[in-house]
Specification:
The chain is an alpha/beta fold and 294 residues long. The chain has 12 helices and 8 strands. It folds into 2 domains: 60 residues; 215 residues, Alpha/Beta hydrolase fold, catalytic domain (Rossmann fold).
Length: 294
């Protein structure tokens, strides 16, 4: 039994309404591991859980099974109030890849976190997931690590630098896509991947109401260090709005656009998940030596 199981049972017992149970599951979806899901499933085989719990577990299990991989043994370490590091319990960083992932507004990577992790190859990569509770494109920092974006970049850079990974990839979805690219440029990382992300010259009108703007992103990209990281801009082939944002960003920095064929929604990773084709796409985006043709 992982430590999560007794905590889950205690929180479940405290849920007075079906909506409270649903909110508990939504929160857990943002940070638990594949092993946590398996542990709760094992408990459910021995002790009764309410139908809502069983439905939640069945949904996660069905999505995770699309990876066709054995259970990925990630363990979670909280590195901030809303930042988590997922590592292989037996393999050191040397010779492996760290993915620094910027979540979207739902605080996940277009799907429940244990499902995403189950589609990653733990032997090859660890993952640091940063969430922005203010939903402000990380302009107010994120993960409880800093109060603004430059501070967040500096904090992550110092943390990553001491860990000794062979490669570091910045990965962001939706509102996390542009911050991922800017951090990779600022820190000289190996690769940046933006999935459905924006461009500094396509402002979100909600930001002005909070006294925020994309100006810091424009400044970071204008510095153009040498060498630049490899930048990959992913979007659904059939979703024009995200294609427009990718084209705008590619006009500012050297980048490769990757429209995903056979998809037509902003949530392109979830579409590939439903199609049973997410794992090869993530292999190509996050690991080196894999052709990007998915």
């Amino acid at each position: 039994m992982t430590d999560l199981v007794p905590r889950y049972l205690a929180k479940l017992a405290g849920c007075a309404t079906p909506n409270a149970v649903n909110q508990l599951h939504i929160a857990l979806d943002t940070y638990i591991t594949p092993a946590d899901v398996e542990a709760i499933l094992r408990h459910a085989a021995k002790a009764a859980l309410p139908p809502a719990s069983l439905e939640w577990l069945a949904r996660l299990q069905a999505m995770a099974s699309q990876s066709r991989l054995p259970l990925q043994p990630y363990v979670r370490e909280a590195v901030g109030d809303s930042a988590s590091l997922y590592t292989h319990p037996d393999l050191p960083p040397a010779g492996r890849t760290l993915v620094v992932a910027f979540a979207g507004d739902a605080h996940r990577l277009m799907m429940p976190t244990p499902v995403f992790l189950q589609h990653c190859r733990a032997r090859d990569m660890d993952l640091m997931l940063i969430q922005d509770q203010t939903r402000s494109y990380f302009l107010r920092g994120g993960g409880g690590l800093a109060d603004d974006f430059p501070g967040l970049v500096a904090r992550i850079g110092a943390d990553v630098g001491r860990r000794g990974y062979r490669r570091v990839v910045a990965f962001g979805v939706s509102g996390g896509g542009l911050p991922a690219v800017c951090m990779a440029v600022a820190l000289g990382l190996d690769r940046a991947v933006s999935v459905g992300g924006s461009s500094p010259d396509i402002e979100d009108p909600r930001l002005a109401l909070r006294g925020l703007s994309f100006a810091i992103f424009s400044e970071m990209l204008a510095r153009r260090p040498v060498p630049m990281p490899e930048i990959v801009l992913v979007h659904a082939a059939g979703f024009p709005r995200d294609a427009e944002k990718a084209a705008a960003l590619a006009a500012l920095v050297p980048a490769r656009r990757h429209p995903v064929a056979g998809t037509g929604r902003h949530n392109v990773l979830n579409e590939r998940l439903v199609q049973g084709r997410l794992r090869p796409l993530l292999d190509a985006l996050l690991l080196d030596g894999t052709a990007l043709d998915h």
